[in-house]
Amino acid sequence: MDSRTMINIYKWASYILIAGATAVFFMTKKADLTLVLLTMAVFMYALMFRTRARALEEENNQLSDDLRKLTLALAKAKGEHKANDNEQKQ
Prior knowledge:
Blueprint: H1 3-28, H2 31-89
């Protein structure tokens, strides 16, 4: 599953749990079940941020690898360019 999909699932699950906790509280006036649902909502919200952080870290690592490859390619191209200039001068 895609990380964006997981983020949306966790986000909407937390919203639904908050709405459910509100409904349960007003229907039953029991704080125990309400607190359990609110705790689950906070947990889902934390999972959303954890998934988002992992996705950003993965993207950052991929961009760092791409930057290393491009830097090596640039250094190689500059080295070849200098070698060609030296051959033309001689």
